[in-house]
Amino acid sequence: MTGFGKAVVEIPNKKITAEIKSLNSKQLDMSTRLPSAYREKELELRNRVSRRLERGKVELHVYVESLQEEATTSLNIPLMAAYKTQIEEMAQQLNIPIPSDWYSLLMRFPDTVKTESLTTIPEQESEALIKAVDLAIEGLMQFRAQEGLKLEEFFTARIDNIRNLLGEVPQYEAERVAKIRARIEDGLAKLEQIDYDRSRLEQEMIYYIEKLDVNEEKQRLAQHLNYFMETMDTGNGQGKKLGFISQEMGREINTLGSKSNHAEMQKLVVRMKDELEQIKEQVLNVM
Known about the structure:
Helices cover 61% and strands 15% of the residues. By secondary structure, the protein is of the alpha+beta class. The protein folds into three domains: 3-69 and 123-142, Ribosomal Protein S5, domain 2 (2-Layer Sandwich), CATH 3.30.230; 73-115, no CATH class; 149-283, no CATH class. The strands form two sheets. The chain has a four-stranded mixed beta sheet with strand order 1-2-4-3, covered by helices on one side. A two-stranded antiparallel sheet has the order 5-6. It is rod-shaped, with a radius of gyration of 38 Å.
């Protein structure tokens, strides 16, 4: 879900820059930073972003730069003339001198300077704003696609490693059962003057060894590995599902470790866990 996109669109008098970045998040969490003149477009921009990005902690920043000087202020000359006339009449009636610095005096009166502000964005500027944001989103999506290809290679390698480690388990199973049986029999042999039923011992031994059988765990883990690869190939929007599958893989690997009772098998389990942890860390980056 991580990514970054930037786009610049120029119109005759302005340059509009849109930047958008995304970090991991379970749902869409978006913040915007827009020039005050573009606030009326915020809801539309948010909708355009949410339709494409779906998830992630998203930040959208828009900057505008003027390419030519704009007359945003003007002098209210008729009002200033009225002020000047009244001051001259006042000076004559009160018999006081006429001011020597008319400019600074008249500029101090209210409403002598008018500020012009646009109440709505011109259509050309509005279209340029939308285009800049769309291009930035597209850049982020391309970034995500490139990251997705890298993640696909990463996951495939990790899954293959777990599959290869799982393939090494059977070589230790026969030895594991023999060692378990020998350990129990040695323990019984050390008990002096204890008589026991050999046939009952065999039954209990079979039951105990069956409880330590790992065939079901191996089969389920292999199925989860295949399911992970199949889900990864189905397209976008599978991040949560891949996370659930990796959790199920972890359960089977943990059970395999608890049943192993064999040093070499436990080493294999530790290596499987290491590969799985790498998968869990990176699956957060998947949509």
